[in-house]
Specification:
With 267 residues, the protein is of the alpha/beta class. It contains 8 helices and 9 strands. It has a single domain, classed as Rossmann fold, CATH 3.40.50. A 9-stranded mixed β-sheet has the order 1-2-3-5-4-6-7-8-9, with helices on both faces. It is globular and about 50 Å long.
Length: 267
């Protein structure tokens, strides 16, 4: 077998399956954190950030542990990065990973009818894109409506990547940049998209909180559902590192995500 499987008990306890392939590339790998006691409430695909140029799923065990402690199975997926790929390679990978989860999560104790998308920073962009535009998920046997909700942490959801030196080369492959901007897609797709939870620190100097504020407004204006949580003074990393037990005093992000998932499951 090309993956490593092992069971661990950390904190509240979870089993961990590491390195499962969800596609042909070496970066198409994911880890699954499953609560050890009882059936998972739902399965959450988490996509990390890193400006589409860096990141590794192994850095997010604290998040898998945190959500497993609340009863959620968590899938953390790697994806291809720049300069190996440009837009839309990382969006396609997120869609591929979600399609894999829908098709295979039952084999790991999950329920394909109870799925969520979640991402931080660049990862929040990725999950927003696949939740809004069905063309990414259709080739992988899925649709935006297969997600019960989307939690986007500090996502660059309203910026124009061609106006930033850091992202221009990554996004200049887009034939129409407006179709690569979640806030623009919201106008035509939000009514059919899953509900969003936007989580952002007001002290974020990497991705300003106006990204989440403006995106939430755009989703609501188009007839979609979006709730917004702003954390006074929290920075760009705080909204994700606050899932770790020693840092939960920084912001109630775990509680808010848990509340959002729970509300969607009982809606």
């Amino acid at each position: 077998m090309s993956f490593i499987q092992r069971s661990l008990i950390w904190g509240t306890g979870f089993s961990l399956v590491e390195g499962l392939p969800y596609g042909p590339d070496a970066r198409h790998r994911l880890d699954i954190y499953t609560p050890r006691h009882g059936a998972p409430k739902a399965s959450v695909l988490f996509v990390y950030g890193g400006s589409w140029t860096s990141g590794a799923r192994t850095l997010y065990r604290f998040l898998g542990q945190a959500l497993a402690g609340r009863g959620y199975q968590t899938v953390v997926a790697d994806y291809r990065l720049s300069p190996a790929v440009a837009w839309p390679g990382f969006v396609e990978d997120t869609a591929r990973a979600f399609g894999w989860v829908k098709a295979h999560i039952a084999d790991h104790g999950g329920d394909p009818a109870r799925l969520f998308l979640m991402g931080h920073s660049a990862g929040a962009y990725n999950v927003a894109m696949v939740a809004l535009d069905p063309r990414w998920l259709i080739p992988h046997g899925a649709a935006p409506q297969d997600a019960s909700g989307v939690a986007a942490l500090a996502g660059p959801l309203s910026f124009n990547p061609l106006k930033s030196d850091a992202t221009r080369a990554i996004f200049e492959t887009a034939p129409d940049i407006e179709l690569a901007r979640p806030i623009k897609l919201a106008a035509t797709h939000a009514a059919d998209a899953p509900p969003f939870l936007l989580m952002h620190g007001t002290g974020d100097r990497t991705v300003g909180s106006h990204n989440s504020v403006n995106f939430a407004d755009a989703v609501r204006a188009a007839g979609g559902q979006a709730s917004l949580k702003l954390y006074p003074g929290a920075g760009h990393l705080s909204v994700v590192t606050s899932f770790a037990w020693p840092l939960r005093w920084r912001a109630p992000c775990l509680d808010d995500a848990d509340g959002f998932f729970g509300a969607r499951l009982t809606a």
